[in-house]
Prior knowledge:
The structure is a homodimer. By secondary structure, chain A is of the alpha/beta class. Chain A has 16 helices and twelve strands. Helix content of chain A is 45%, strand content 13%. In chain A, β11 and β12 form a beta hairpin. The longest helix of chain A has 31 residues. Chain A is globular, with a radius of gyration of 21 Å. The interface between A and B is large, with 49 and 49 residues.
Amino acid sequence: MPVGTAATVKAVPQDVLEELGVEILLGNTYHLYLRPGIEQVRGLGGLHRFMAWPRAILTDSGGFQVFSLSALTKVTEEGVRFRSHLDGASHFFTPESAMQAQIGLGADIIMAFDECTEYPADAVRTRASMEMTLRWAERSKAYFEGHKNEVPWGGSQLSAVSSQQKHVLRFAQDDKPQQDMAGKTQALFGIVQGGMDRELRRESALRTVEIGFPGYAIGGLSVGEPRELTREIVESTLEYLPKDKPRYLMGVGTPEEIALYAGMGVDMMDCVLPTRAARHGLLFTSEGRVSIKQARYAEDAGPLDPACSCLVCQRYSRAYLRHLYAANELLAQVLNTVHNLHFYLETMRRVRAEIQNMSRE
Amino acid sequence: MPVGTAATVKAVPQDVLEELGVEILLGNTYHLYLRPGIEQVRGLGGLHRFMAWPRAILTDSGGFQVFSLSALTKVTEEGVRFRSHLDGASHFFTPESAMQAQIGLGADIIMAFDECTEYPADAVRTRASMEMTLRWAERSKAYFEGHKNEVPWGGSQLSAVSSQQKHVLRFAQDDKPQQDMAGKTQALFGIVQGGMDRELRRESALRTVEIGFPGYAIGGLSVGEPRELTREIVESTLEYLPKDKPRYLMGVGTPEEIALYAGMGVDMMDCVLPTRAARHGLLFTSEGRVSIKQARYAEDAGPLDPACSCLVCQRYSRAYLRHLYAANELLAQVLNTVHNLHFYLETMRRVRAEIQNMSRE
């Protein structure tokens, strides 16, 4: 899932995301809550309508960003008080308010409010944090069950909004008619925590499954631990998550990692790496990483990746991409992001094809 | 002509420019000379190949930017010494070196090296500046005639380059086969100066025509003078420029102005206004200017311009565009620029249709 933090995958228009084959993208509840605000997005018909994106969206719970981006965070059993990274204003997130926010945004998949345990953390702290995440999961589910009919989809995810508007926007016309959405609602996923302790991970997984969700995420990884440890924890946690439900590994990873984890049974991943690296001139290719700012590419007339079929590699040279980056041109960020997203999506398409081939044999 | 200063119309990929119907764009010799450098562009097959743009390109002479962007400019009969706005390095432009640079870039239309007379300027200064521009026009033409076969087009503007590369880039495949370019070369346009003095403008026009060029530009306007004065000078200058050659008004203007001047007989114009204004959130619409940053658009679900058929107005709401701008998102600059370019190109398409209708009646 490409990350579209503030209702945009940075620098890439939605029609290009469609052409790239993006099926689902991620929005950050923390950012959207602060700007433009939940009520504004709800009033405009929800996130799909607001950003003119008819395909699937997942929103995170906001918990991770509260811990990583905001200042003066104070956690209690009730929830988390924090200051906005934009203007310093004080806000309070609880499992209930995080659900309320995500229902207002109206993504297809929403996430339980959890505490992302810091790394490293001792055994006592890790258990206490895991136990609170389990209590918050129950509160998240209870609130969601009581309010899931408040999702701003109306009869249809799209028609409810277009009826508010004089002008029917393009995607509502072009896309296949949506099935009647009456009675349908979002899918709330639970999140497994437990730090780097395999036994706590097992317990967290089993007890989260006992609460019962239509999908499960593994959170609290990629927080600074060695990659080998990440792999071990993912492997041991997956064992306790049902295979017939989506299993989502949060915040991972490199192209090699997403192939590895998909092979181990992970169904969904998200990471800012392809888009953020692109904006810093770091490009993923079939021949390895390319740092396009390097002077060695200044006269290189070849494509970025000779094996790549993306519109950037089909049209532009390394010399041109290097020039755009060196000249700090906006087009550098557009083209670099398009290429990296294509590389990631191709990686996943290849993994899916391999899995299908294996299951046929 | 949209302005593509550094071999890119800021924020807009070339395939989108094609979809918008851009037939010709402008590159700035001053910028390209400093970065990435003429020899690099020439070595990569010229500007068309470098920026993967198969349609027409015009480059300016660099003179205007030398005066407006660089520091410590010193003008002599020989040429202009200036310091780069990028790193302060000292450079020297002459009519000959400006031609050499533009031949190396290989645009379809190139411009004589002129001095853009400052505003205001007294009669003595204006005449002296005009006389020097005339001498520079002769030197520009003489150098061009002696070196026009050095344009990096090879047998074909495109094939010369693709033969240097293993990979045939997309536009070389998609576009119609170019006619054999052997023996063909660039068109060098002369530039009329003469400040705000109608008599000097007449003299400059007549003497520039006497030197003889395949097209003529009116320079030295939009330099701070009142708009009514611009109109008067354009009108009186056009009278002395041949109707069967392209007449190009440099650096103009607003949507109203380009319609006005096209109606008066101007064939070509360029201006940074649509692209630069877009990046500052100022959008041109059929209902007038819209400053999209204003809070009044925060909950406006309608399109930017209900009468506009561009991909931005067909898909996104004012509320979304306002959010992107307020959140300083890159996509704001992409979408705003696409819309403003569409508005300008539509304005010119309408003017052309009106002229065709009038000539039929």
